[in-house]
Design the sequence.
């Protein structure tokens, strides 16, 4: 990402898997959902950090899994929305992981990644620009204006519109947590 971490040290240290409550450890599935590949991958630092709060972590994994793996949004659109949130929130951890997910699993291109950074072109009604504008409005004003909503509604059904709002809200919250807790990237990204 083009911006530095807000803190270079974890404020809440990630737990090793053997430190997790057993029921919570079984939910981790190797740290990544098999649908995204690498089921034997090491536990991600985001999950290892949230494991410090087992009751929250249990519910978080289910909620986040719903939005990431079972969202009604097309994967490409979901990842563009998540990336725009990560960019706006200056969430290095989120950005880095979702660039990888977007490129490897959701059909994004490097041009798409550049477009996410740039944001919506003024007054453009192109699908990607409308999506990015909606994310900007949700993050900045916590509301999608009437014109943007109407444009989205030509593309998405009611369930998808709801998923979009929840994806943006969830990843804004996750970005706040990652930034505030000082969750650091795994060694492979350094």
Sequence:
């Amino acid at each position: 990402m083009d911006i530095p971490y807000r803190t270079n040290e974890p404020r809440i240290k990630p737990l090793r898997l053997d430190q997790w409550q057993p029921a919570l450890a079984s939910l981790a599935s190797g740290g990544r959902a098999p649908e995204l590949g690498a089921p034997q991958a090491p536990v991600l630092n985001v999950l290892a950090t949230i494991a410090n709060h087992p009751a929250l972590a249990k519910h978080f994994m289910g909620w986040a899994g719903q939005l990431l793996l079972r969202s009604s949004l097309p994967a490409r659109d979901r990842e563009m929305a998540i990336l725009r949130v990560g960019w706006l929130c200056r969430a290095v951890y989120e950005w880095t992981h979702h660039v990888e997910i977007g490129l490897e699993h959701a059909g994004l291109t490097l041009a798409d990644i550049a477009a996410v950074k740039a944001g919506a072109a003024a007054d453009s009604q192109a699908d990607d620009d409308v999506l990015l504008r909606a994310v900007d409005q949700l993050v900045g004003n916590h509301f999608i204006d009437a014109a943007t909503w109407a444009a989205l509604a030509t593309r998405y059904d009611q369930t998808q519109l709801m998923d979009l709002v929840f994806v943006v809200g969830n990843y804004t919250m996750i970005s706040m947590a990652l930034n505030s807790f000082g969750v650091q990237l795994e060694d492979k990204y350094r």
